[in-house]
Amino acid sequence: MTATPPPAQSQDSDQDNGQESGLGKGLKKRHMNLIALGGVIGAGLFVGSGVVIESAGPAAIVSFLIAGVITLLIMRMLAEMAVAKPVVGSFYVYAREALGNRAGFSVGWMYWYFFVIVVAVEAIAGGRILQLYLPSAPLWILSLGLLVILTCTNLVSARSFGEFEYWFSSIKVIAIVLFLGLGALWITGLWPDSTPGVANLVDHGGFAPLGWGAVLAAVVPCVAFFTGAEIVTIAAAESAEPKKAVARAMRSIVVRIITFYVGSIFVVVAVVPWSAEAVGVSPYAAALSALHIPGVATIMNVVILTAVLSCLNSALYTSSRMLFALTRNGDAPHMFTRLSGGGVPRRAILAGTVIGYASVIAAFVSPDLVFSFLVNSYGAVALFVYLMIAISQVALRRKLEAQDPGALSLKMWLFPWLSYATIALMGTVIAAMAVLPTTRSQFWLSVVTLAFILIGYEFRRRSRTSAERLDAVTPPAESAPESAATGAEAEQLVGVVTREQH
């Protein structure tokens, strides 16, 4: 049973103000701050960064710095649009308005696909950590258990998601701050039995022992580590003050990037020789071991599990909101517009978890074929989305200025030249991914993913065209009861979100 729908509003008005979506407004200021902060601190920082150090040496610091600058510029471009025009769906809507329906459709579905695969990957990663302490439990059961728990929290309300993310992100931030503090004590000689100084940066083959080409190549995986900073622009639709929330988060992101990523990688390579085997396995654990911290393995497993659960929680939230946004322009089935009494798109959440459940089972049944394909088929997708964000900003900037000059309270620096430079940098990263041996398969399988999405768009476009032609040749009814909705009224009601009553 559904409630009487609210008065229909035009699509443009609905999207322009971002307030008429029907989504709840349960995210508070503290939630938004930590969602933005935690979005750039994933399990990749704690584990995957070791691969970057192995491939670039101490100069991995430079690789992360370059990737951080690229991400910062992309996020500044997105923030300009999000502050001027907060909408449900964020960059999906901007791409649609700036570059056309096909671009918007592609961006929205690529982003949805990226995060539903993240759901599966993070659930399996979390299950593997738990299996260290529950060796008799099957991996697929542990992974499904984590997925079910976080699915339930997302189904409750946006505030429930925000609360879990607040505490997950708080733990990650505290862990990073403590790590930086301990590293500073070691480097300055204030830690017992420490070796002060930064000699490890140059004592083992030099600062860039594998050459500067390797340093630049390492930028490619580093950019992927920063994926997630944009989530705050999607979550803004469920906050009371979306413009302020986005502006506040984006203005401080540079500090987070430099402090958490570049700073912590600097500590690792300063405390431990970059060539040490332990650095490739778990760089942060290697540094803590050098400091003779007891229980290092347990400490790092707790921190990594927290990061994994945070990513899983965010992926469930983000994929559902993007799917919900896709329905508002007919780019996804209308059934996903339905909301719970608390303003939660439960069907959209469950759609993402179904893919997650199937992927977890695939990892158990066919890890080398099906699951391997899924993991590789999303590797470059987020980078494609970032490139489209940058192109959309250039196309929309002058349009936004013409509509409301005062709306651009937060602007991209040195427009348009820095915007063009950012597009070129992002294009270079993607091109490098296509040719580097370590990322080539991910790139081309991601292209396959994009091709399927474009085929989906053509089916959607042709089916819509056929439906419009059918409507044009259908003769109108001779008479209709006064209580029946007119064609125009029915058309308006199609886009209205109804709420489930429990």
Give a short account of the largest sheet.
none
Q: Looking at the chains present, what oligomeric state does this protein adopt?
A: single chain
- The overall pLDDT, averaged over residues, is 85
The sequence of SSEs as H and E is HHHHHHHHHHHHHHHHHHHHHH
Tell me the total number of β-strands: 0
Radius of gyration: 24 Å
Total helices: the number is 22
Portion of residues in beta strands equals under 5%
- The secondary-structure class comes to mainly alpha
Shape: globular
Taking the alpha carbons of the first and last residues, their distance comes to 8 Å
Ranges with pLDDT <50 over ≥5 residues? 1-19, 478-502
Helix residue percentage: 55-70%
Give a topology summary.
Layout (H helix, E strand, L loop, with lengths): L10 H7 L11 H11 L3 H14 L3 H25 L6 H9 L1 H33 L5 H18 L1 H30 L24 H6 L1 H7 L5 H5 L6 H10 L1 H19 L5 H5 L1 H8 L5 H32 L18 H20 L4 H7 L4 H23 L13 H19 L4 H34 L13 H8 L8
Helix pairs in contact: 2-8, 2-12, 4-10, 4-12, 4-13, 4-19, 4-20, 5-6, 5-19, 6-7, 6-16, 6-17, 6-19, 6-21, 7-8, 7-16, 7-17, 8-13, 8-16, 13-15, 15-16, 16-17, 17-18, 19-20, 20-21
Can you offer a commentary on this structure?
The chain has 502 residues and is mostly helical. The chain is 70% helix and 0% strand. It has 22 helices and no strands. The longest helix is centred in the C-terminal third of the chain and has 34 residues, at 440-473.
